[in-house]
Every structure is written in C-alpha cells, then in structure tokens.
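Dear colleagues,

For the upcoming journal club I promised to circulate an example of a predicted protein-ligand complex. I picked one with zinc ion because it came up in last month's discussion. The inputs are reproduced below in full, followed by the predicted structure.
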Amino acid sequence: MELDELYQEVILDHAKRPRNRRELPQCTAVAHGDNPSCGDEITVFVNLGPDGRITETTFTGSGCAISQASASILTTQVIGKTRPEVEALIKTYHATLATDGESVDADGLGNLAAMGGVRKFPQRVKCATLASHALGNALAQVP
Ligand code: ZN
C-alpha cells in the first residue's frame, strides 16, 4: 500500500488551499470535534436559511491533511442542501469509508468520493470523518 494513494489530487488541492476556512460569527449552529489519536481538531459553523437549506458553512481547525481536506471538501458539497439531504450525504460518505465501502453507490458525494481511498487505512478514517461528524452534530442542535 502506497501512502500516496491517500493523497489524491483533490485531497492535496483542498489540503493546500482549504475552502471556507474561517469562523462564522453569526451562525445557526456550531460544533467541535477532535481526534486525539491524530491530534486533529475541527470546528464547523453552519447557517441555515429560512427554507431550511444550508446557506453557508465554514470550518476552523488544525491537524493532518486528511482531516483538513475532508472538512474543506465537505463544506463545498453541502451548500444549498436541506438538513435531511445533508444527513443522507453524511451517511453515504461514512458508508464509503467502511471496509466494504467500495460497493457503496457514491453518486452524489461529488469530490467527497475522493476520500474513499482512506478506507484502506482504518486508523485514518477518524481523520476523514471528523468534520462530517461535527457537521452532523451541529445540524442536530437545530430545533
Ligand atoms: Zn488526522
């Protein structure tokens, strides 16, 4: 197994130039997650519009390239989606990272599908799901 497989082009691009990496001072919900085994931490900020769709989502944090790139990619994939749509996307994303994730239909994941290779490195799956767990927790706080 080549570690390079982990760092595909999309992941490298987002790790080098993270999108939506800033605080969102006025937001509907915020959640923090950390992954002590790797030293990653992520805070996810979410704004929902009156129609229940995500209008803006951002993150701050530090850690390995996988954790930061997955947060960056995730924030670009969920804008305009409703909470159930995002919850479904997160569920699919996590399924693709399971050991049998190769058989999961990754349609609709967009660039997040690039993270699928992480399934070969089980100890890094927590890095790849840190932001998605935080986003799910943030959405769960919304009444
Ligand atoms: Zn990590």
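Two points we might discuss: The longest helix spans residues 125-140. Residues 35, 38, 40, 63-64, 66-67, 127 surround zinc ion (CB under 6 Å).

See you all on Thursday,
B. R.
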